[in-house]
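Fig. S4 source data, part A: sequence.
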Amino acid sequence: MTTIIIEENSPQAKQLLEYIKTLPFATVIEEKKKSFREAAAECNAVSVDAFFDELDDRIKKRFVNA
């Protein structure tokens, strides 16, 4: 199986997508665009502040206990 991502941002892309939909061996799965917050929540993203707080804690623990 091969995955191809086509963004419908031009008339040519829309034409290509419509053509692909007619092919008997192709399946088109249209995915609604997610907002940044939805995409971040889906992958359990953390804020930059939380990331650096955790990084600082790990660095301190690593070198204090070394």
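Fig. S4 source data, part B ends here. Residues 11-65 form one domain.
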